[in-house]
Each structure stands twice: as C-alpha cells, then as structure tokens.
Amino acid sequence: MLDMIKRFIYHYNNMRWARGRHETYLCFVVKRRIGPDTLSFDFGHLRNRTGCHVELLFLRYLGALCPGLWGYGETKLTYSITWFCSWSPCADCSSKLAQFLRQTPNLRLRIFVSRLYFCDREDGLEREGLRMLKRAGVCPVMDWRPVQGVPPHIMPNDS
Q1: What is the pLDDT of residue 146?
Q2: 26-54 burial string, b = 16+ CB within 10 Å, else e?
Q3: What keywords were assigned to this record (predicted)?
Q4: Which of 44, 45, 96, 110 could form a disulfide with 27 if both were Cys (CB 3.0 to 4.6 A apart)?
Q5: Do residues 147 and 8 lie in contact, with contact meaning Cβ atoms separated by under 8 Å?
Q6: What percent of the chain is modeled with pLDDT above 90?
Q7: 1-55 per-position pLDDT tens digit
Q8: Left if phi > 0, otherwise alpha if psi is -120 to 50, otherwise beta: which for 151?
Q9: How far apart are CA 44 and CA 26, in angstroms?
Q10: Which one, of 106, 108, 114, lies nearest residue 88 by Cα?
C-alpha cells in the first residue's frame, strides 16, 4: 500500500518542471444525494492510456459510475464529482469536458490539479481551455494539499 501512495504522490507533486512525470493520474470521488439526509459515495482512480487522455477515459465510465445521470423516466439524479489530477486537462479535453458539462446540468465537477499543462503562454489554447471549463461551471483549484484528504484506498496502484 505504501508503494501505491508514494507513486501517486510522486506524480501529484507540484513542480514547475515535472521531469519523468508524463502520465496523468486522476483520483475521483462521486457523491449522489439520495434523500434530504443521505449521500452515496463512490471513488476510484484512473491513469491515462495510450491514445486516450484520462479525462475522456473518465467520461467513458461515467454511465457506470453515475446511474440515473441521464434520467430514469422523468427523474434525473444529481451528482457532485471531485477530481484530484496530476495535470490540468489539455485544450482538447477541456473543450470536450466543457461541452459535456453544458449538456449535463445535474453534474457538478470540482478539479484539484497539481500542475498546469502547457499554460506558460497567456494566449495559449490550454489557458483558454481552462477558461471554458470555468465558464461551464467547473470549480478549478490548483493545490497539492487535497491529496492529503484522499482516502488511501482510492490511490492508484501499479496496474
């Protein structure tokens, strides 16, 4: 278990030049309100795969993670999702996420990132992508400290 936590922290460590940290790790917590006093929780982690960024991989699994997100009959359930990411989304993923979130008003997304992905240029596409996410309602936070609040059982393993 300690190796898994060390591996995640290695990739999540906030540093300007993240040499050797080419993978994006995403730990997530999914909350659903069941009743006025009841919440349901789910959690897990993903890592990018060849040809698929982790943000889009998450969207592929969203239907299984959030049953009722698109509604059963007339009822749509409301979900709140928190991501802990080692890198901020690229411009393309930001655009796709923003479009998805505009079409899914019953989903709230908060993203904690450790490092910004190619955001050095003020007029760069990645910065505009992050602005699109903010306009779509995402609550972005760049901070390394939330990793201390991530339960160890959702830390990535070596798979």
Answers
A1: 43
A2: bbbbbebeeeeeeeeeeeebbbbeeeebb
A3: Hydrolase, Metal-binding, Zinc
A4: 45
A5: yes
A6: 14
A7: 567 667 667 766 666 666 666 778 888 999 987 777 777 888 888 888 888 899 9
A8: beta
A9: 8
A10: 114
Amino acid at position 36, single letter: P
Contact 155, 118 (CB under 8 A): no
**DSSP H/E element including 59:** helix 54-65
Residue with tokens 């749509």: 76
Sign of CA dihedral 7, 11, 15, 18: positive
- Return the residue matching tokens 């990535």: 156
Reported as a pLDDT band with limits 50, 70 and 90, residue 152 is very low
pLDDT of residue 112: 87
Active-site residue set: 55
| Location of structure tokens 């040809």 | 51
